[in-house]
Amino acid sequence: MSKVLVIGCGGVASVAIQKCCQVSEVFTDLCIASRTKSKCDRLAAELAGKTATRITAAQVDANDVQQVVDLIRSYGPDLVMNIALPYQDLTIMEACLTCGVHYLDTANYEPEDTNDPAWRAVYEARCKEAGFSAYFDYSWQWAYKKRFAEAGLTALLGCGFDPGVTQAYCAYAKKHEFDTIDTIDILDCNGGDHGYPFATNFNPEVNLREVSAPGSYWEDGHWIEVEPMSIHREYDFDQVGRKDMYLLHHEEIESLAKNLPEVRRIRFFMTFGQSYLTHMKCLENVGMLSTEPVEFEGHKIVPIQFLKALLPDPASLGPRTKGKTNIGCIFTGKKDGKDKTYYIYNVCDHQACYREVGSQAISYTTGVPAMCAALLLLQGTWRRPGVYTVEELDPDPFLEALDRYGLPKSESRAPALVD
Ligand code: NDP
Q: What is this structure's pTM?
C-alpha cells in the first residue's frame, strides 16, 4: 500500500502514471499534480474505472518549494516522482527533505534561466575545472547526498532509459558479463518516423538545448569536448536497419565515469536524420535556439520557448509515429582472460506503445523505467539513504521488472558499424 505524488503530466508522466496503475496492488493511491491541472484531470478521468489505483489531481507550480511542501503535507505521499522538467529537480528535492519523503526523477538538474548570475558563476567554474560545457551536470544534485542520507531518505536520479536503463545495463555487464570493462558506447537509436519535417520526441526546449551543445566524452580520466555533431558513425541495428548517429554529451557519462572508474572510455551516440539536422542548424543560425530573452513589441520573449509553442507537442506524435527504437550499450573488455564485445539493448515499437498507452516509444521507454524504479523503491529493494544514480544499484531486479512491464532486454555481439 503506497501513496505516490507524481509531479508533471506530460508525455513521459502520462506513461509512468498508466504503468503505475497496472500495478495497483503497490501503487494504491496516486496524486497527479502539474502546473496545468486540466491535463491531470483529463488523465485521471481517462483512467477512472480502468484501475484499482485511487487517483486524485492537484495544481502545483513546482518552481516554488513552499507550494510543493504544502501539497506533500496535504496528500502525505511515500514518494514523489518528479516527471516535470529538469528545472524543478532542486525545488522538489528540497521539498522532499522538508517533508521526509523519498524522491525520484528522470533527468538531471539544469536551470531554466541560464543567465542567472549565481548559477553562471558555478557553471563557469565547473566548465574550467571539469572540462565540459553542457548546461546540465550532477554536481547540484550530488550536493544533496549527505542531507538525504542523514534524513534516511532515498533519492534516485535519472530513472528513464538514458539516463536510467543504460546505467543498469552497465551495472549488469559489470556484474555478469565482464571481469574488466574497457569501453562503453551508449547508442540511442530511434528508427521512428512521425512524418513531420521537424519535431522533437520529448520536451523541445530540453531536447534542443541538449543536442545543440558541444559533444563530449570521457577518455583516460578526463573529458574531451568536440564541436556539436562533429563525430558521426553509421550502425546497422537489429529490427531498425542502418542509421546515422552523432556523439553528444549526456549526463550518464558523468556518473558512470565516477562510479566505474576503471572504464577507459565512455561515449554517447544518438540518431539524427538529415531533415532534423538541417532544421536545427537553420533555427540555431537565426537565433531561435537562444535561451536569452529578446524584446518583441513590448514583450520579453525567450526564442527557444517561442519555438516550443510552434512545434508539435511531443505527446501528439503517438498516433503518427511508426517504426522502432533500439537503445543499448556496447561494451568491450575482458572475460576469463579473453577479449569480449557485448551489446545489451531493448527494441521498442512506437505503434505497440501507442496501442497500449497512447504514446510513442520515447515517452514509453522513459515512463516504464520510472515506474519500475519507483516500484523497487517502494518495495524496499532499492531503498538506501542517500542520492543515487542507477548504476550504483543492483541491476537484476530492475531488469526483471523492465522485462515484465514492457521493455525486455536483448543481448548480442555489437550492431555492425557500417563505416
Ligand atoms: P513535457 O513537456 O511533455 O511535460 C512536462 C510536464 O511538466 C508538463 O505536464 C508541465 O506542465 C509540467 N511542468 C513544467 N513546469 C512545471 C512547474 N513549474 N510545475 C509543475 N509542473 C510543471 O515533458 P516530457 O514528458 O517529454 O519530459 C518529462 C521529463 O522526462 C523531462 O525532465 C525530460 O528531460 C525527461 N526525459 C528523460 C528521458 C530519459 O530517458 N531519461 C527521455 C525523455 C525525457 P504544463 O502542462 O503546464 O506545461
A: 0.95
